[in-house]
Every structure is written in C-alpha cells, then in structure tokens.
Amino acid sequence: MANTASGANGSTGAYSLLPSVANNMPPAIPEARPGMTEDEIALYDRQIRLWGMRAQEKIRSANVLLVTVRGLGNEIAKNLVLAGIGSLTIADHNNVTEEDLGSQFLLATPSAGDVVPTDATPEQRQAADRAAAAAVVGTNRAAAVSQQLSAMNPRVKIVAEQRDVSTQPASYFEQFSLVIVTDRNPAVLNYINTATRLQNRPFYAASSYGFYGFIFADLIEHDFMITRTRGNIASKPGEKETRTRTVIDVKVEEEGAADIKETITKREVYSTWYLASDSSPLPESIRTVPRRLRKVTPLLPCLRALWTFQENHPGPEGHRVPSSDNATDRAEFIRLVNEQQEFLGTPPVAADKIREFLQSVESMREISPVATVLGGQLAQDVINTIGHTQQPIQNLLVFDGTTMQSSVYAMHPEIHLGTAQLATAPNTTAPESASEATGGAGGSMNATADRIMAAGIASAAALQAGNAADAAAAVTAVPATTIADTAMPPPPLPQASQ
Predict the structure, then answer these.
(1) How far is CA 457 from CA 273, 418, 462, in A?
(2) Predicted pLDDT of residue 26
(3) CA distances from 337 to 299, 314, 344 (A)
(4) Do the Cβ atoms of 299 and 360 come closer than 8 Å?
(5) Residue 364's domain spans which residues?
C-alpha cells in the first residue's frame, strides 16, 4: 500500500513505505565490500541498488533503540529488521494484554504454523488460538515480540529491554545510534529527547490515535547527500535554501558528461520536542501566505491541544486523555484547541472535527492501516537518516487516516536551532556533562538537563505570550568558551564494520 506525504506548503507527493525496486534498476550485482559477506549482499541486493552499498553498510552497523511496541512499534520494528540494521533494542516494561493480540502481528500464535494440523476443524483452531493467547498474555511485551523479530532476520541482533527507560539516566542512551519512542506521553518524550540531545543522538517520536497520528524528528544537525542532474542554476556551498536547510558541499562530475551530475551535501537543523510541540509557530512560508494557511490540517491544533491537556493532567503514567463524556474535559479541550488555532493563525476548527478527534483519541484503539502507514513512513525516514541519503522529515508529520494524507510542517521557535539549543543554559560548564545524569522522567535530571529544560519552558512561555524578545532572552547563549564545552558537534557518520 502506498500513501502520500505533503511538504510545508501542503502539497502531496509519493512517499514509499519500504524500499522498492525501480523499473529502471540496473542489472549488475554490486561488488562485495569489506564488512559485508556475499550472502548479505545477495539478501539486501534490492536495497543496495536503491540507496547504495555505503548506505547499507551504515545501516548494518546501526544500533537502534525502539521504546514501546504496540501496533505502531510492531510496524517500525518489522521494517527496520527487514532492512538489515545491526542491532535493535526493544524497550517495553508493560505486559501483553488481550487487546494487544488484535493489533500486534509480532505476537504470533503457534496455531498459525505447523502446531495445528492442516485438516483441523475451525473449533480446533479457535481452541489452539485461545491456548496460545493465554500463554503470551501477561508476559513482558518486549520479550514476547523478540522471537518473531529474530525469525524475520537472524542477522539482526534483537535485545529485549524490560525496564522503563524513562527512569534511566541520560547516559543510558549514549550506546545507541538512534532512538525512537512511540505511544508515550509528552513528559516522557521531553525527558528522552533531552537525554538524546545531551548524548548527541537522533530522536524520533510517534503515536497513533485511532484514525490519526504523528511523527516528530529531532536530528539536532543532520547532513545528507543527494545526487541529481545539474540545473540551470548551480548550487553553491553556503547557500541557505530555507531557515533550516543549508548547502554544505557541492561536487560536480566532469564537464564533458552528457548529463552533468552534482552531488550536494545539505544540513538540516532541528528543535527539541518541547519547543516544537508547544510554542513554535508555523513556518513563515505558510503563515504569510493566506492560501497556504487555509490548507493547514485542523489536526495540528488538535494534537497540540491534546499534548497540553496531558501535561495539565498527569496520571499514573502521565498519559490521561480528555473524556468525551466529561463536560469539564470537553470544555478544557475545546478551549485548548481554540487557543492553539489562534496562536497558529489557522482557520477555526469545526466542532464535528474536534468531536471526531476527541472520540478517536479517547478510544486509543489501534487501527492497523494507520499503524502500517505511520510505521512505514517513520522506518523509511530512519533508514534515510542512518544512511545519510535523502531529505529527512522536518520536523513534524501529521497523519489523517480519514483522508490518508500526511502533512509535514517545520515547527521551530524564533531562536537558534540545531546544536545552539544545547548551549541555552547560562553558567553551564563542561563538568556538568551528560555523564552526570542520574535521574529519569520521574526524578530530577542532571544540572545541565534541568537548565536546558528550564530555558525551554521559559522560552515557550514567552513565545506563547507573543514576546519574542523575552523568548530569546530565556535562551541567551553562554560565552563562547562555555559553548565550546557544551555544544555538541554534528552526529558522526556510522562506520562500516571491517
């Protein structure tokens, strides 16, 4: 199944879920490279033709952490394992419930294989299904899915992490190349994103709410390369294409070629989850063009209202959602939607759309096609990020399952982006590094993280109040010597195994 993703202007285009082979795929088999066996090259041949041997080697050496494996997590894990990443750690401290069995194919039951005879009656198969379900229900969710993932691709190392990683120190995330968090509340996303920033690790967040969902990316500063036929206007190093994207390097093939090709290295800079999800306006290219502003999906203010509601109503897991049967909840949620709509400058959200969204979120039912689309989009973007090929999501993707469309918006505050946001805490010095982190989302983090988050909160409040000057003051950069100690360089390119 294919779906579409649209850019900041709301236009849509093709967006593949997993690598596929183009009709004009070259027939030659790639030559073996150090670090990859002939069997691996044969297994991943179609992918190598699509994104190249070098990118596949980077994917092969990647160590990815996936937090929470519900239906959406199942899709992401499947796609990454089949793509051939080096190691996948599945982190989920929850146990399997009966509801999970209806949306998670990785919790496969023995009755689907050779345990039940092919001539078994429907009653016998149902009895086998019930027995298999009884065996898995109540067991740890990460451990339960690990066996099926290992069977999909034995070359990928699968690790089951049964602890709640939001209670782990920031240094825990240093061991991973990239971190993905699904179906967790804003407080957890905020903590883990802060931790990954301190460890200079790319971060993705995603959730599905019935027919709706989102993907968020904070890659800090990410370089990627694209090769294309050179146009009439040549790209130049240092050229700023958008507020977030800059051309870093341009390499042109020999001038005598019939079709002159150019390989362009570009850099995208990002913001943290806290700033992008709560206080960032729409990009200027949208908010200054009425036609584009009218096309902004009403799901954007609805999602931001939901995240604010969850922050206002922490529960046992900080994950309470508004109840459509509770008049107080309804009134608060509608008020939050209207506040976000006014802040973004988008058209008012229709009452029936708010009602549909609220009902979809309240049920929290996972719809397989929605999980498939979101999981495919996120996994493809992760593969592109690890391989440093193609332009990644920048930075919030909103999915509407009723129209099967994805809209991408670059949501950033009017302050410095990228690694500069790591130097927003005055008086931060090198000794207050990520290695000193000792607490999780439920406790106190290290001084550096506390200052970064405090600065983010102050900046967000000022931006919400419409005071850009106060927002900038809240994140005033520290002296250059301190910035050199605290700001992190761009993520290093993964090295292929030798």
Answers:
(1) 11, 17, 9
(2) 34
(3) 10, 19, 11
(4) no
(5) 1-94+140-220+270-498
Number of domains in the chain: 2
SS3 149: helix
Instruction: Tell me if 385 sits within 8 A of 222, measured CB to CB.
Output: yes
Quick check: is 105 in a domain? no
Q: What is the CATH number of the domain that holds 290?
A: 3.40.50.720
> According to the model, what pLDDT value does residue 291 have?
94
* Residue 495 buriedness (CB in 10 A; 0-12 / 13-18 / 19+): exposed
- Is there a contact between 440 and 194 (Cβ–Cβ < 8 Å)? no
- CA neighbor of 376 nearest in space, from 365, 364, 388, 384: 384
Which of 268, 299, 325 terminates a domain? The answer is 268
Q: Do residues 360 and 195 make contact, with C-beta atoms less than 8 angstroms apart?
A: no
The amino acid sitting at 424 is T
**Average pLDDT by consecutive 10-residue portion of the chain (498 residues)?**
41 36 34 58 68 77 94 93 92 85 69 63 78 79 88 91 93 96 93 94 95 96 88 84 93 72 92 91 93 95 95 75 90 96 95 93 83 94 91 95 93 90 45 37 44 47 45 37 33 35
Query: Looking at the DSSP assignment, which residues form a beta bridge with residue 398?
Result: 214, 407
Output the pLDDT for position 278.
85
Cβ burial 98-128 (10 Å sphere, 16+ → b, else e): eebbebbebbbbebeeeebeeeeeeeeeeeb
* Distance of alpha carbon 296 from alpha carbon 293, whole angstroms: 6
CA 72/CA 466 separation, integer angstroms: 36
Identify whether the C-beta of residue 307 lies closer than 8 Å to the C-beta of residue 278.
yes
Same domain, 316 and 340: yes
Can you tell me the distance from the alpha carbon of 178 to that of 85, in angstroms, rounded to the nearest whole number? Answer: 11
- pTM to 2 decimal places: 0.77
